Amino acid sequence: MLAQKILPSVDHHGSQAPRADDAQRPNAAGPYRRLYEALLTPSPTLQTRQHAAQWLQRLMDDSKDVPSALCEAPEDLHAWARANAQSVAQRYQAYLDGRRAGGERQYFHNRAHALNFLASVAPTKLVDGSWLYGLAQHSSTERLRPLLQTYLEELGDGVPHKNHVTLYRQLMRRHGLQQDLQLDDANYLQGAVQLALGWNAEHLLPEVIGFNLGYEQLPLHLLITAYELNELGIDPYYFTLHVTVDNGDSGHAWQACEAVLQMMEVQADREQFWQRVRAGSKLADAGRGTQEVIASFDARAEVVKIFERKAPAGAGMHSDYCRIGGRTVNDWLGPQGNIDALLDALVDGGWIRLGAPVAQSRFWNLLQGERAEMFGVFTGYELQVIHDWIRGEDSRDGQDYAQPASANQTRRLPSFRALARHRSAGPFAASAEPVLDPELNQFNEQLQSLEGEQRRQFLSAALSPATHWTSTGLLATRLFINESWAA
Ligand SMILES: [Fe+2]
């Protein structure tokens, strides 16, 4: 990954620009999210695609003076990529040495912090590979094959448990992260960039190739993230998978270099092409980077956000017997309530004992355990955040709220891999379920009536970022590979 940041520029972009009434609509989506969602449909309008291309051009213009991390000459690309991989390996080794010597985790303070990271980067991860979608329409162009191969591998070649987006969706579901967490608009910027490239490949091919080059180099943060997720009992597979597929010998990093070199051979103006590749590569660093997302986590602020999301559903649902700090719960949660002050009142009134085991907090016992009166109100993620906020520094032990250790427990938590080995030893057999999928039936019916170019276009349309992870998209990917790729 490149080192410099690109400052976003969001005004003057037609329908994607912030609206004058955004300030009066606290839950209104910001401009990046609006663009992201407009592009994450099976068929964005021409106007949306053009706006997106203009926006990308502005981002690149704004970063003109940002130094490029790429090598100066295209002939040095493979050596540059190898040097990057070696540097990452050395720095990762230093990290591992530090941890073995007793150093603390560098990324995630506790389990809630790690889950918050997964949620915060989700807008990017859920469109993984999308910058290459435009190449699906050009499967017969030999020189673009390394890029299309990368895209098909992002899609897991149509195999559900290998499709990167499907894997991330499963990860989020497993940890109660699937609802709208109302992330900051900046979290949508990188995903919007990727989608905008994917829907404008014909006009921005050098930039797509350059973005791919910058984005597919193995970054150090991927290795550390995977290591610390595993340590906290969270499946790191999505991240470890990228360590292996991005490898510089034959993987995506190598394919990215090959794509530049192969296209370079047929350019009338090689210098102009190379400069556009370089501009596109800087887009790989647009938006919030891993370190910035990690640094932005504040457990108490996240608890406030969680309570604020629940407040409209909870106001009016409580009896007036219960008072906290002299006010009824309905009052606290109502339009005149103040969630930040409510948390203080819960602490001051002894409902929450910060820094103590959660079982000593009356409020926690309303959420979890036998006869918990508020059982089911909060998702797994939300409970983990509340749990870790209450425990404070003690939460560094990474305890899972759902599997509390006994008070005397001093052994290390089992890693995700250790837990997975334990689970796989049990009597767990896969079942062959009958398929209930009207969308898939409809897709098959439509497909049967199509031949030749029409059929190829129908299949490649189903490979779009909005659909490739669905059952129809996965089937379309497998058929596309058989009919247009491997043929
Ligand atoms: Fe990926």
Based on secondary structure, the structural category is mainly alpha
Strand content: under 5%
Bound molecules: fe (ii) ion
How many beta strands in the DSSP annotation? 2
Low-confidence stretches: 1-25, 406-411, 425-431
Helix-strand blueprint:
Layout: H1 31-39, H2 46-62, H3 77-100, H4 111-120, H5 122-125, H6 145-154, H7 164-174, H8 189-198, H9 205-215, H10 220-231, H11 237-245, H12 252-264, H13 270-282, H14 290-295, H15 299-314, E1 323-324, E2 327-328, H16 329-333, H17 339-348, H18 362-367, H19 380-391, H20 416-424, H21 438-448, H22 452-461, H23 471-485
Antiparallel strand pairs: 1-2
Helix pairs in contact: 1-8, 2-8, 4-19, 6-12, 9-12, 9-13, 10-11, 15-19
The structure holds fe (ii) ion.
Residues 128-129, 154, 164, 242 line the site of fe (ii) ion.
Descriptive overview:
The protein has 487 residues and is mainly α. The protein has three domains: 14-295, no CATH class; 299-403, no CATH class; 438-485, no CATH class. Helices cover 52% and strands 1% of the residues. The chain contains 23 helices and two strands. The chain has helices at residues 31-39, 46-62, 77-100, 111-120, 122-125, 145-154, 164-174, 189-198, 205-215, 220-231, 237-245, 252-264, 270-282, 290-295, 299-314, 329-333, 339-348, 362-367, 380-391, 416-424, 438-448, 452-461, 471-485; strands at 323-324, 327-328. It has a two-stranded antiparallel sheet with strand order 1-2. α2 packs across α8 and α9 (205-215) runs antiparallel to α12. Fe (ii) ion (FE2) binds at residues 128-129, 154, 164, 242.
